[in-house]
Amino acid sequence: MSFARSIVSIVVVFVFAATGSFIQGQAATSNSKPEDQVTQLEHDWLAADAKGDLAALRRIISEDFIGSSFDGSVLRKHDIIPENPGPGGFAGATVGPTDVRVFGDTGVLLGVINTAGMPAKQIHVILVCQKKPEGWQMIAAQLTRME
């Protein structure tokens, strides 16, 4: 068996063994434009948060993630993944307009998240994503609540 066929076999086994909306979303977008893949990553992140899918969140958010919370404090990966499964703060949220730019293996998404809370609010989001061997991951984020 050739080296290339071995790699393909390993990848196929990995994809079929993995579960969660993130992998399904990534597989569905593997032939799409990088901008679409970054947009899908945002959808996968919100869906994983809404379901409390900790495994998917761990895959979506890079180990070296850094972000800014609503109060301006610095967030790391362990700060934004809940310790226990269950619906997160984005349960019921929908994605509003987004604009994505990709520069090599780095993508920047500027967009809007519409929350489902009462009263519903808009959150402006800036996500920085990087294409890594395991797929696109969020490496930085800033969320701003619009009052």
Summarize this structure briefly:
The protein is an alpha+beta fold and about 150 residues long.
How are the SSEs ordered, and which strands pair?
Layout: H1 3-17, H2 21-29, H3 34-51, H4 54-60, E1 61-68, E2 74-76, H5 77-80, E3 94-103, E4 106-114, E5 122-132, E6 135-146
Parallel strand pairs: 1-6
Antiparallel strand pairs: 1-2, 3-4, 4-5, 5-6
Q: Please identify the oligomeric state.
A: single chain
Low-confidence stretches: 1-29
SSE sequence, one letter per element: HHHHEEHEEEE
Largest sheet: 6 strands, mixed
Q: What is the radius of gyration?
A: 16 Å
Going by helix content, strand content and strand pairing, the class is: alpha+beta
**Count of structural domains:** 1
**Helix count, DSSP H or I runs of 4 or more residues:** 5
CATH topology: Nuclear Transport Factor 2, Chain: A
How many beta strands in the DSSP annotation? 6
Binned, the helix content reads: 25-40%
Strand order of the largest sheet: 2-1-6-5-4-3
Alpha-carbon distance between the two ends: 60 Å
CATH architecture: Roll
Q: In CATH, what is the class?
A: Alpha Beta
| Percent of residues in β-strands | 35-45%
State the shape: globular
Q: What's the mean pLDDT score?
A: 80
Search tags:
alpha+beta, Nuclear Transport Factor 2, Chain: A, six-stranded mixed β-sheet, 6 strands, 36% strand, disordered N terminus
What this model shows, in words?
- This protein is an alpha+beta fold.
- It has a single domain (3-146), classed as Nuclear Transport Factor 2, Chain: A, CATH 3.10.450.
- 36% of the residues lie in helices and 36% in strands.
- It has five helices and six strands, in the order ααααββαββββ.
- The protein has helices spanning 3-17, 21-29, 34-51, 54-60, 77-80, and strands spanning 61-68, 74-76, 94-103, 106-114, 122-132, 135-146.
- Strands 2-1-6-5-4-3 form a six-stranded mixed sheet.
- A hairpin with a 2-residue loop joins strand 5 and strand 6.
- Helix 2 (21-29) runs antiparallel to helix 3 (34-51) and helix 3 (34-51) runs antiparallel to helix 4.
- The longest helix has 18 residues, at 34-51.
- It is globular and about 40 Å long.
- The model is unreliable at 1-29 (pLDDT under 50).
